[in-house]
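Hi R.,

As promised on Friday, here is the backbone we talked about, encoded as structure tokens. Could you run it through your design pipeline when you get a chance and send me back a sequence?
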């Protein structure tokens, strides 16, 4: 057990060091006391930096629209929004935008301080979401509304034009993190949704009731990245990783082309020369009665398989006019369990040896096979090539247009900027502080003594290596020490007769002496052989009953029998002296 002390102490020291590390990274600074809210400094080049410290004010507008093609009872956007401190907040005084209702359409939006135009700088969008009651089914995504004439925040609905839709969405086991852009066709002027490829990272953030940070970055070279809690879980290119693709194909199938009437696309055909064998009987059944079967002698023909349960009683509220005539429940006939079976005995079936099934001719290669037909290609009249899909429609407002079956969703610290470093600084003043506070709050209020360690492993994955070393190394040492090979001592000889090993020793000249004991595995090699022999004799005399007193051996040491047939020893067996 002492082998565990050092590595376990190492693990404890490591956790303490991680907790008190003076490195500038705020990832490792886990506070142990409640944190009071400190507003972040507003970035100079932010198009929107919203902390909800001043409530909704006049900036945020609730939608009063009615959704088309929906039942009247749920068509209205009447979901309730409120700015308040979320339930279980680890940062005292930190308020956020809370969706307080469920099973309602809800929409709220705010214009940017200035429209974002895609003019050669990155688009960085990030916001925080916390599911205080978890999330079973619903969305918490953000829509970046296009800066177009006629934008009316009081009438925001599911058909409002947007440039980008980004954020989490789930229902049951289906978990998504949307990144959808609306691309404008340069020829027709129509907008088409382009969906990013599915995220491969971890999307399990709907049930832990912690604050999560979602960030989308679109670069001027049309590459993009999606981060959750500072970890990148998806990335790609607008030109290669969107579906359907940004650019249509240069050629398309000719809609006027049709397959010729004489086109034969059958690769295999039945052999026209094949004939059915004369003895082929298609009508023979696959199974026939087994004539060799015999009904068991104890088969009960007159007993039914199921009988009425005598213990069942008609319910007191049974109404024969409404429920019909009552009948007791059926149970298996107990007599059938003691016999081979009950009821009418039917002869079992067996496979018919003459069964061959329906005859079909063998398939052969089609000599007239023309191949797989496909319409001819023609130039795509709608073809275009957009090599800079980054240049999207300018963004004029941000909106949450949602339907969710869970209330208590908290949104906070929304930022739209064109500088990644500005977003990183904003994150350090907002989400990092909140994350560390929630970590400390969870450790302080954890119902399990193991939860702080689990949280530490989640926050600092490199601790897994310390844990593995602390557990596996001691186990390996214990196994090695307990199962190491040992030389088994040879059994001592209990007779003076020459044994094969004595002959081998004589042949090799390795005869044991006082100074050179023979290889017999004796425990104490320092004693002379004569002393060992005397000790052995003494042990044998004490362990075995003396036969000398009853005279069961003759003078030569042979055993004698008395009148009762019992063996008696007359004199002790004499041992020849060992020659060194």
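Update: got your reply. Pasting your designed sequence below so it's all in one thread:
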């Amino acid at each position: 057990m002492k082998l565990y002390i050092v590595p376990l102490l190492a693990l404890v020291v490591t956790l303490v060091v991680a907790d008190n590390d003076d490195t500038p990274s705020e990832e490792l600074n886990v506070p142990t006391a409640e944190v009071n809210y400190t507003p972040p400094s507003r970035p100079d080049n932010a198009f929107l930096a919203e902390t909800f410290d001043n409530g909704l004010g006049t900036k945020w507008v609730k939608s009063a629209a009615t959704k088309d093609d929906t039942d009247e009872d749920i068509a209205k956007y009447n979901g309730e929004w409120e700015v308040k401190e979320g339930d279980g907040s680890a940062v005292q005084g930190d308020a956020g935008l809370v969706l307080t209702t469920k099973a309602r359409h809800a929409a709220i939006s705010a214009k940017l301080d200035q429209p974002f135009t895609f003019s050669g700088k990155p688009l960085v969008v990030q916001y925080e979401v916390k599911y205080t009651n978890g999330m079973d089914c619903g969305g918490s995504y953000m829509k970046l509304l296009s800066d177009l004439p006629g934008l009316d925040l009081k009438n925001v609905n599911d058909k409002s034009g947007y440039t980008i839709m980004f954020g989490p969405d789930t229902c049951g086991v289906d978990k998504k993190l949307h990144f959808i852009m609306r691309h404008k066709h340069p020829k027709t002027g129509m907008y088409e949704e382009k969906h990013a490829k599915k995220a491969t990272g971890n999307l399990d953030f709907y049930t832990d009731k912690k604050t999560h940070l979602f960030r989308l970055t679109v670069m001027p070279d049309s590459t993009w990245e999606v981060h959750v809690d500072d970890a990148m879980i998806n990335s790609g290119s607008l030109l290669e990783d969107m579906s359907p693709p940004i650019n249509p194909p240069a050629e398309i199938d000719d809609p006027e082309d049709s397959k010729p009437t004489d086109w034969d696309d059958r690769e295999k055909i039945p052999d026209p020369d094949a004939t059915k064998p004369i003895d082929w009987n298609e009508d023979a059944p696959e199974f026939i009665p087994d004539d060799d079967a015999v009904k068991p002698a104890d088969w009960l023909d007159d007993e039914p398989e199921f009988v009425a349960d005598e213990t069942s009683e008609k319910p007191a509220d049974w109404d024969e006019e409404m429920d019909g005539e009552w009948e007791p429940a059926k149970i298996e006939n107990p007599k059938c369990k003691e016999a081979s079976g009950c009821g009418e005995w039917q002869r079992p079936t067996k496979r018919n040896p003459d069964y061959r099934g329906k005859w079909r001719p063998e398939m052969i290669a089609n000599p007239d096979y023309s191949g797989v037909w496909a319409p001819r290609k023609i130039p795509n009249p709608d073809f275009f090539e957009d090599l800079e899909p980054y240049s999207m429609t300018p963004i004029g407002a941000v909106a949450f247009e949602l339907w969710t079956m869970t209330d208590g969703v908290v949104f906070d610290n929304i930022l739209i900027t064109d500088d990644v470093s500005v977003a990183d600084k904003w994150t350090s003043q907002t989400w990092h502080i909140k994350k560390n506070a929630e970590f400390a709050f969870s450790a302080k209020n954890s119902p399990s003594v193991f939860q702080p360690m689990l949280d530490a492993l989640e926050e600092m994955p490199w601790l897994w290596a310390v844990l593995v070393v602390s557990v596996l190394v001691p186990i390996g040492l214990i196994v090695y020490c307990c199962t190491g090979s040992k030389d088994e001592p040879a059994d001592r000889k209990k007779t003076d007769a020459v044994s094969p090993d004595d002959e081998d020793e004589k042949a090799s000249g390795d005869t044991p002496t006082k100074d050179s004991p023979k290889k017999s595995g004796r425990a104490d090699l320092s004693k002379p052989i004569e002393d060992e022999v005397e000790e052995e004799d003494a042990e044998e005399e004490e362990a075995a009953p003396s036969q000398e007193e009853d005279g069961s051996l003759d003078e030569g040491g042979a055993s004698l029998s008395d009148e009762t047939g019992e063996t008696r020893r007359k004199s002790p067996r004499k041992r020849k002296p060992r020659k060194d």
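One thing I noticed while checking it: The CA atoms of residues 287 and 351 lie 4 Å apart.

Thanks again,
M.
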